Amino acid sequence: MKLHHGLTGLVILLAGCGNEEAAPPPAPPAPEESPARIEAVQDAPSVSVEDFEPILGDGWQGELVYADPDAEDRQTTADAELAVTREGRTLRLDFSFPGAPQGDGSAPLEISEDGYWINDERVLRRERSDDGTLTLLTRQECIEGRYIATCDYLYDISEDAFSIAKAVTLAGEEEQRFGHQYSFTRDSGQ
């Protein structure tokens, strides 16, 4: 059976060679239990773009810790900086890495009109701690490497600290794996 799947992949690869208009094969569909296929219920937690107001601006200093199978402790850390802007319901996170500027990039966070979604991540939990930190848990079906997976994101938002952590559960497994975590702080006067 493995040989058949390998030949199918080879046929798809060869069909694309020399034909610049050939599209890559589509990703397999998400499992039926995908949160992306669940309708939001009336009492489900929601967010608004205003919940992210504390992180707007620049001056965020921190680090990215990510899973690295080649590292001795299986994780690598890189210094990172962040600036956040807003246009309508979309926040733009501009990441820069002083030690590796080739990794600099941007990521949009679009909050849905009903507040049940951040991009295609379903909001599952919303909590505010005694110190005012807002914690959001979101989930989406994703492709991790070559595998269908479920990705959970944990956002912590406050005036002087912001983090996003990603955990991954591969389809057919129960163990959640560490993906990465961005952690930033800035002086509250920024």
- From the N-terminal CA to the C-terminal CA, the straight-line distance is 59 Å
Helix/sheet category:
mainly beta
Instruction: Give the biggest beta sheet.
Output: 10 strands, antiparallel
H-E order: HEEEEEEEEEE
Rough shape?
Answer: globular
The number of helical elements comes to 1
| Percent helix | under 10%
Q: Into which percentage range does the β-strand content fall?
A: over 45%
Query: Could you report the average pLDDT, rounded to the nearest whole number?
Result: 81
> What value does the Rg take, in angstroms?
19 Å
Residue runs with pLDDT of under 50 for 5 or more positions? 1-38
Please report the total strand number as a whole number. Answer: 10
Order of strands, main sheet, comes to: 4-3-2-1-10-9-8-7-6-5
Describe, in plain words, how this protein is organized in 3D.
This protein has 190 residues and is mainly β. The chain is built from one helix and ten strands. The protein has one helix at 2-16, and strands at 57-67, 75-87, 90-96, 105-110, 117-118, 121-128, 134-144, 147-157, 161-170, 177-185. The protein has a ten-stranded antiparallel sheet with strand order 4-3-2-1-10-9-8-7-6-5, with no helix packed on it. The chain is globular and about 40 Å long. Residues 1-38 have low confidence and may be disordered.
